[in-house]
Structures are given as structure tokens and as C-alpha cells.
Amino acid sequence: MRLGGLALGLAFGIGLLVGVPGDAQVKIPPDFGFEKGKDSPGPVTFSHEKHKEKAEKCTACHTKVFKMKKGTSGTQTMAAMKEGKFCGNCHDGKTELGGKVVFAVEAKDNCEKCHKK
Ligand code: HEC
Ligand code: HEC
Ligand code: HEC
């Protein structure tokens, strides 16, 4: 697992440096959902497009926070996020990116920003 992540990270780094033939960068994937955990209040869609504008660098998430393959980063529980893992790495109500404090996972008003009904 660790080696796999490292290899992916390296492949990605090299991809950025030398460029993929016919393509300046690794393409960002279209929006996708996550497998719903028990009691999840609703499906969560993650948008690379929106995060590209806001979090800018791929390295803000890859590969320290998220691996570069869907469903390989571990079980995303809210408890882990509250400890600063996964989405909670930025969505903690403290981290500032692009001059804005990123909304927190904990706040009740924010559940629906990620979990759609
Ligand atoms: C805000 C966090 C974040 C940023 C920034 C980010 N990603 Fe991702 N990326 C994710 C998440 C979350 C996943 C899914 C990981 C999982 O399910 O384990 C992912 C997965 C991927 C995948 C695999 C998709 C698949 O179908 O398996 C690729 C390719 C990818 N990202 C490319 C990029 C590139 C290129 C950039 C920079 C332009 C980027 N990402 C920036 C969060 C991010
Ligand atoms: C920044 C985005 C985000 C916010 C905000 C957020 N969640 Fe989540 N949550 C996720 C993701 C991603 C998952 C994993 C996919 C799933 O289970 O639907 C998840 C999973 C869950 C789960 C199932 C896993 C577990 O921990 O038991 C519950 C329950 C949950 N969220 C409740 C909440 C509640 C309640 C709120 C508001 C206080 C909230 N979430 C706010 C992104 C978020
Ligand atoms: C590298 C930091 C970072 C990580 C990790 C991250 N986000 Fe974000 N996200 C941001 C920033 C910055 C914004 C824009 C500021 C805001 O809206 O508070 C944002 C905004 C959002 C928005 C609102 C988008 C809009 O404008 O409609 C959603 C929904 C969201 N994130 C979901 C997620 C989910 C789900 C995850 C985990 C799978 C995640 N984010 C992980 C930085 C991050």
C-alpha cells in the first residue's frame, strides 16, 4: 500500500515535470461521488473543477491527503475528518485558502454543503 502510494506520487510528480505527451498536465477527473457510509445524511459529490479554482495546486491534496485513485484513500468517517483527515484537512473552519476561511465539517449548517438530499 505505502509503496503503491509512493509510486503513484512519483509518477504524478514526473508527469507534472516532463508533461504527458500531447498533454501539459494530468487531466482533472470529472465530478464523482463517494460510497456512502452508514448513516451518511446524503450523497457527497466532489468537484475537482471547483477545487481547482479554490485549492489551486494538486499537491494540496495529492498524495498526502488523498491518493490519486478513487476509493483508495481509506474510509472517510466524520470522526476522522474532525481530526483533520480527508476533507477535514482544509474544511476545519480555520484553514485559509484564496483569502477565505474554508467552511468546517462540524458545523450543523454545513452538512448540506457536502451531503445533498
Ligand atoms: C481538494 C482536494 C483535491 C485537489 C486539490 C485535487 N484532487 Fe484529485 N482527488 C481528490 C479526491 C478526494 C480524489 C478521490 C480519492 C479517493 O477516492 O480515494 C481524487 C482523485 C483523483 C484522481 C483519480 C480519479 C479516479 O477516477 O480514480 C485523479 C487522476 C486526480 N485526482 C487528479 C488531480 C489533479 C490533476 C489535480 C490538480 C489539478 C487534483 N487531482 C487536485 C481530491 C483532490
Ligand atoms: C466537506 C464536506 C463534508 C461536510 C461539510 C460534512 N460531511 Fe459528512 N461526509 C463527507 C464525506 C466525503 C463522507 C464519506 C461519504 C459518505 O459516507 O457519504 C461523509 C460521511 C459521513 C457519515 C458516514 C460516515 C460516518 O462518519 O459515520 C456521516 C454520518 C456524516 N458524514 C455526517 C455528517 C454531518 C452530520 C455533517 C454536518 C455536521 C457532515 N457530515 C458534514 C463529507 C462531508
Ligand atoms: C486542500 C484543501 C481542501 C480539501 C482537502 C477539500 N476542500 Fe473543499 N474546498 C476548499 C476550498 C478552499 C473551498 C472554497 C472555500 C469555501 O467555500 O469555504 C472549498 C469548497 C468546497 C465546496 C463548496 C464548493 C462550491 O463552491 O460550490 C464543497 C461542496 C467542498 N469543498 C467539498 C469538499 C469535499 C467533499 C472534500 C473531501 C472529499 C473537500 N472539499 C476537500 C478546500 C479543500
Structure description:
The protein is mainly alpha-helical. The chain has a single domain (27-114), classed as Cytochrome C3, CATH 3.90.10. Helices cover 29% and strands 7% of the residues. It has helices at residues 2-18, 48-55, 78-82, 111-114, and strands at residues 32-33, 45-46, 96-97, 100-101. It has a two-stranded antiparallel ribbon. Strands 3-4 form a two-stranded antiparallel sheet. A hairpin with a 2-residue loop joins strand 3 (96-97) and strand 4 (100-101). It binds heme C (HEC) (3 copies). One heme C is lined by residues 44, 46, 50-51, 54-55, 60-61, 65, 86-87, 89-91, 97-98, 100, 102-103, 113-114.
Spatial order of the strands forming the largest sheet: 1-2
CATH architecture: Alpha-Beta Complex
> What is the CA-atom radius of gyration, in angstroms?
15 Å
Quick one: CATH class? Alpha Beta
> What is the number of helical segments per DSSP (H or I, 4+ residues)?
4
Structural class: mainly alpha
Uncertain stretches of 5 or more adjacent residues: 14-23
Shape: globular
Small ligands present: heme C
What fraction strand?
5-15%
Distance between the termini: 34 Å
Number of domains: 1
How much helix is in the residues? 25-40%
Produce a short descriptive summary.
The chain has a two-stranded antiparallel sheet with strand order 1-2. It has a two-stranded antiparallel sheet with strand order 3-4. The protein has helices spanning 2-18, 48-55, 78-82, 111-114; strands at residues 32-33, 45-46, 96-97, 100-101. By secondary structure, the chain is mainly alpha-helical.
